[in-house]
Amino acid sequence: MAQAMRRLGILTGGGDCPGLNAVIRAVAHRCATRGVELLGYVNGWEGVLAGEWRRLDRQAVKGILPLGGTILGTSRTDPLVVPDGVERLRRSLAGDGVDGLVVVGGDGTLSAATELLREGFRLVGVPKTIDNDLSATDFTFGFDTAVGIATEAIDRLHTTAEAHNRVIVVEVMGHHTGWIAAYAGIAGGADVILVPEVPFDVDAVCERIRERERRGRSFSIVVIAEGARPREADGGPPERRARVKPGEISYWLANEIERCIHTETRTVVLGHIQRGGSPSAHDRVLATRFGVHAADLALAGDWGRMVALRGTKIVAVELPEAVKQIKLLDPAIWEIAKVFA
Ligand code: F6P
After folding, report:
1. Structure pTM?
2. Closest residue by CA, ligand 1 atom 15
C-alpha cells in the first residue's frame, strides 16, 4: 500500500485554530521526503466537493509555521447534507488521483469523516479545537494559545478593575466545556470561575464578591465560559445545550451582579481574539507532532485512525472513538479552580 501511494490530500475544517498551518507544514514535509505529492483542498470539505486544491510542496509551506488561521481556508460544510455529497467527494478524489485524505478538524469535521470511513473513504484524522473538548486526546493544539491569550487579558483586566473598584466579567470561549475558563481562570487568578459543566448560582457568585469586599478587596474578576448557565436555566447536559450568542451570558450575569451588590460592573467578551494570531511554542510542537504522525499513518495505509496525545506520547486511535462523546472538564482541575474561586 505504502509503495502505491502517489498523491495524498489534506483539508482543514470547522472553526480555525492556531497551529493548523504547523500541521499542514509537517504533513507537507513528510510527504516531500517520501516522494508523495500533497494536495491541499481549500475551505474544508467544500474544496473536495468542488475539486479545488493547491499543490503543497516544501516551497508552498515556507514560512507558515508561526502563522495563525489556515493557508487552506476552512468551512463548516458538511458533505453528508449536501445533495449527492458522498458521490461527489468520491468522484472528485478519484479524478484528482488522490489515494487518501488527512482531515484536520473538530467534532463536526471528524464526525463527517467517521461517516465517510463507513462509505469506504481512506482517511486519517487530526484533532483540532481551542476548546480542548475532543475525547481520545489529552490535549488539542490551539488550546494552549487560547489559554495564554485569555490569561494575558485577565492579567490586564486585574489592574483596571482594581483601579476603579469594579467587578469585571470576562467571557471566554467554550460552548460545551470549561477547559479554557478553568485553565485561564487558574492562571490569571480569577475570583470566580464559571463553567458549562457546573450550573452556577447567582446568589453564590454575589456572596463570593461580597466576601472579598469584606476582606478589603473592592474589585473582582469573574471568568465565565460562554456556555455556562445559571442553575435555574433549563439547559440539560452541556453537550446537548443550544448555542447562545457570544456575550449573552456574561452581559446577563454582569447585570445580575450589579443588581445584587451595587458595584459597578463591566463585561469583556474575548471572543475570536482567542482563536486568532500566532500559535504558542507548545501548540507549534504539538501540531507538528500530530502532522508528522498523521502523514506516517496515511503513508503506511493505516486508514481510519486519528492521532492523539496520551500523556507525553502521540498515539493512533480509532477515528470513531474521537467523536463518540465530548470531553468534559477534568473534575480534578475543577477542584483546583474551586480552591481559589
Ligand atoms: O468550537 C470552537 C469555538 O471556538 C467555540 O468555543 C465557539 O463557540 C465557536 O468556536 C465559535 O465559532 P464560530 O464563531 O466560528 O462559529
Report:
1. 0.95
2. 15
Q: How many CA atoms lie within 13 A of 241 on its CB side?
A: 21
| Sequence letter at residue 163 | A
What are the pLDDT digits (tens) for 2-11? 457 899 999 9
145-275, superfamily in CATH? Answer: Phosphofructokinase domain (3.40.50.460)
Contact by Cβ (8 Å): 214, 206: no
Residue 132 Cα, ligand 1 centroid: separation in angstroms?
12
- For residue 150, give Cα distances in angstroms to 265, 284, 290: 19, 18, 24
Structural domain boundaries of the chain?
A: 2-142+279-322, 145-275
What is the spatial distance between Cα 132 and Cα 137, in angstroms, rounded to a whole number? Answer: 9
User: Which residue type, as a one-letter code, is found at position 283?
Assistant: D
Average pLDDT, the chain: 95
Cα–Cα distance between 313 and 141 in angstroms, integer?
14
pLDDT one-digit tens code per residue, 167-190: 999 999 999 999 999 999 999 999
